């Protein structure tokens, strides 16, 4: 993720992104644009293994040229940060009980989208804690889908 200086008024980005690049942009302060790239990033087993932004040569390598193409006159990167979140192998949520521990609910593999679904995930967790059957079909999110 990088924050770049924006010299002109912010407009939506109606542009075609290069294949395999998912770039999001949102206006921050008066002259800044926050951009993010979702592509799986650094594969790590523990948070302390994460390298800082720009320590990996590809950080910003696709996003910044793309932005300069669709927003001529954009300034340089003011700040960069590497973010950590859990991805499942198929990038879908995992919502299931922990094998061998049926009283433990696991909600993970949110692939950077969990914040948008916090209300419904909270409802699922609350139903589980209260022993209620969820009002949603959670079959597609079972952990067992990876062993089929």
Could you please describe the fold and organization of this structure?
The chain has 148 residues and is α+β, with helices and mostly antiparallel strands. It is built from two helices and six strands. It folds into two domains: 2-80, D-Amino Acid Oxidase, Chain A, domain 2 (2-Layer Sandwich), CATH 3.30.9.10; 94-147, no CATH class. It has helices spanning 63-70, 118-129, and strands at residues 2-5, 22-27, 32-38, 77-80, 94-98, 101-108. The chain has a four-stranded antiparallel β-sheet with strand order 2-3-1-4, with no helix packed on it. A two-stranded antiparallel ribbon has the order 5-6. The longest helix has 12 residues, at 118-129. The radius of gyration is 19 Å and the shape is elongated. Residues 1-10 have low confidence and may be disordered. Its cofactor is FAD. This is Sarcosine oxidase. One of its GO terms (molecular function) is flavin adenine dinucleotide binding. Pfam families: DAO (PF01266).
Helix content: 10-25%
List segments where confidence is low: pLDDT < 50 over at least 5 consecutive residues: 1-10
Oligomer: single chain
CATH architecture of the largest domain: 2-Layer Sandwich
Proportion of residues in β-strands: 15-25%
Number of distinct helices = 2
Question: Termini, distance in Å?
Answer: 35 Å
CATH topology of the largest domain: D-Amino Acid Oxidase, Chain A, domain 2
Assign the CATH superfamily of the largest domain. D-Amino Acid Oxidase, subunit A, domain 2
Secondary structure: number of strands: 6
Largest sheet: 4 strands, antiparallel
């Amino acid at each position: 993720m990088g924050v770049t200086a924006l010299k002109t008024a912010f407009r939506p980005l109606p542009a075609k992104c290069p294949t395999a690049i998912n770039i999001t942009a949102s206006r921050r302060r008066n002259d800044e644009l926050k951009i993010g790239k979702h592509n799986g990033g650094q594969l790590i087993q523990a948070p302390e293994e994460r390298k800082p932004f720009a320590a990996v040569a590809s950080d910003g390598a696709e996003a910044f040229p793309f932005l300069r193409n669709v927003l001529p006159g954009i300034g340089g990167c003011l700040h960069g940060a590497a973010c950590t979140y859990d991805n499942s192998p198929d990038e879908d949520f995992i919502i299931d009980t922990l094998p061998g521990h049926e009283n433990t609910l696991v909600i993970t593999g949110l692939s950077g989208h969990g914040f948008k679904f916090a209300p419904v995930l909270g409802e699922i967790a609350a139903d589980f804690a209260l022993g209620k059957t969820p009002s949603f079909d959670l079959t597609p999110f079972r952990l067992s889908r990876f062993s089929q």
